[in-house]
Amino acid sequence: MGKPQIPGLLKGLGVTLGTMMQTIKPKRLGGGAATVQYPHEKETPPIRSRGVIALREDNCTSCMLCVRSCPDWCIYIEAHKELAPPRRAGGAPRKVNKVDRFDIDYALCMYCGICVEVCPFDALFWSPEYEYSEPRIADLLHDKTKLGEWMETVPEAPALEAGAEKKKGK
Amino acid sequence: MSLLAVDLPYWAQSLLRVLGGTVAVLLPAGTIVYLFLFKMMSFMQSRLGPMEAGPYGSMQLFAEVGKWLQKEDIAPARADLKVFRAAPLVVLMSTFLLVAVVPFGPDAYFTNFDAGVFYMLAVSSISTLGILMAGWSSANKYSLLGGLRAAGQLIAYELPMVLSVLGVVIQAGTMNLQVIVIKQNSDSIFGWNGLGYPYILTQFVAFLVFMISVQAELTQTPFDMPIAESELVSGYMTEYSGFRFLIFFIAEFATAGVFALIASVLFLGGWGIPFSWAGWDPTDLGSIDNWMNFGGPLIMFTKMMVLTALIMWVRFSYPRFREDQLQRFAWKVLIPVSLVNIMITAIFKVAF
Amino acid sequence: MPDIADRQKLSYIAAQAADARLNVELETEGMTLNIGPQHPATHGTLRIIVRLDGEQVIWAEPSAGYMHRGYEKLTEVRTFPQVTALVNRIDWLGSFANEVPFILAAEKLMQVEAPPRAQWIRTILFELSRIANVSLFLGDLGVQLGAITPVFMAFRDREYVLNLIESATGGRFHPNFDRIGGLKDDLPAGWITETKQVMKKLRNFCDEIEALLFGNEIFQSRLRGIGVIPAEVAKQYGLSGANLRASGVDWDLRRDQQLPLAYDKVEFKVWTHPDGDSFARCWIRLQETREATLIVDQLLDGIPSGPVMAKVPRIIKVPAGEAWVSTENPLGEMGYYVVSKGDLGPFRVKIRSASFNNISIVPWVLRGVYVPDVISILASLYFILGDIDR
Prior knowledge:
The complex is a heterotrimer. By secondary structure, chain A is an alpha+beta fold. Chain A is built from 4 helices and 5 strands.
């Protein structure tokens, strides 16, 4: 090992000193740490962030497409058929599916989004809400009431970049 | 001790000395851990460090101590229990023995050896014994590797430390640490005694060699092969938990503080300010004002902080040497350099 | 056929016998040390059995499989979208890069090509995942060698890339964005300007790492001349990616293959190094990160407008056939051999992962090195456990 040339070692010291000075500088001068002091300050996740799946119960017809397409099979649906009033007067009553139980087990969920994508009736939505941890794993099975409450946190889809094709609908 | 106005019986003085020694070891350890390990390291890594325990995380140290104290004391089944239990105490003992010889003020010292430097260098190698004991008795191949590496490294770096300090001893003409401090603050550089004569000015090379050897004696990066966290998972300390690990932890930072104190005594002028500023007479120790006995420790503390900041700064910035590169560096670079330094110092001492 | 309890007993006895054979065969001299599976240095649960003579290695063998999740078996009972979601998790640091060869193989079978805009955005996300993956390598390299500070800078600057990926796809680590025929969605507004700024920050990060780590003399003396792999040996053991290029072999699948990605529309340099030692491997990855930022900049300037999805049916049934596609992933060459029988899902998928072949050279390269060098060589070879074990 030859005698070390000084510059490389000193440059490294300079980098760490620079980082320290940058962290000590007050926030209004552009400094500060790169970390966020959770839970005193919270970062807002991006709009498309996959935090939790929310359910719009009115749209769900229990077609079971989401149940079949989930890679972990974490959605549980039970439904029964009901008779609904006919659309036009004088017609036959319609058979309609009424959802009894729509549970998503977030302990199994991979947050892949296939169920949201595959639903033909726009009943499932992504929401960036992430603060729903529970002390017990069994409590992570959320039912349709809770899933419906999360609908309020679902944001509007963001505007798209220039050059994107204009889409109709979703 | 003329430190206090009242004349105390011998047992009270000894009690004060013991308390003073404990404070002198634990206070630097605690401050270094908080200021440098928690805060400075975090700032260098763009984060804030512990902030929850107490304002700005100041109580984190007590929380850590409490956490380590309440952990279960595990010893491996096949470990050599007597040696395993004694090893951390041996390491901490060397720190307490070291601090006994450091002067904190004109009258605030524990002992005033005439062979202070000699004693200091001898006692600092006791920790090597403790580390070897820890590594070997742990019944763990990783600890054994760490302990053996440590033995080789620590013994190798004793020599540069001794040789670099010899330059200071030649210049001062004495091995008594108190006299070294007084000489540094009262001598003059080419007839001008405005700054005293801190030996760092002429012994700059020795200072560098001493700081590098101290870094190696403390097994800090870039010389932390014995610990080598990403390979040996704490090396010789792997099997320790609870109170024993806490003793190793405290010993590491306390020794860093005590070595910094010694470096400031040898090179930076110790507890004193240049005597010419206050008109003291170097030949008559009684002429120094009594408040210096309280200001001296503060000055030592500040100088220790500066030197420890340097040690820690290097620790957080560099990767580590491999064992053979380490040894090559000590034997082929540091020892020749310090020998040349001694030669030049001796020549100049005789010539001027 | 013995029942399950008997089979388990038999396999347990076989494992014990193998271990005993190991101990009996080799207990003649030296000390056997297990590096892993729980160890700070291995990137996950890799076990390397070494026999040491003092501090020198006389024999080494990697023992992988502690993280085997049965990917190829899982794909037999999943549909194509489900497999795409699973495949993200093989190389979990640059996860979009895992989806691309699989989707390209499926598109090859369906004989459908994604529209140009989708191809460009796919390439941009591919390069972004390369940057995310290799910037963590640069930080982790410091930790393996004892420098604890660079890893925080790596995480800090990697956050920007992950935020970009999250704003476009919804997932930081597992985008699940590629679909047969294109992409799931288009980019949100403002993404292109933000990406350009992030690329500038990443170039600053590369300069910082170069000053802090690569310029450090201790770092260089730890890595130069260690673990030299000649080009012929590298080719025989099937190394790929930066490991191969560090031995002087000019091999880059982005430039040499004609895949429906936008690499032929940009200019980039393929970095090689003649030495073949650990330093070369690490240095090349640094240069490749910089090069990736330049590629992304070029691509951002010229994204064509149009749809991001081709006309494919809603329920996709891939026609029967076999297809092999491999791409230049961050870790090396990753390829998928997809066999389809015309169902909703593949019949069989064979995943050729880069790290599995990369660590096959461990017994050869670790002969005669010191224990600290074992760690630095493993760090420079750079593997991800999910990639080895799948």
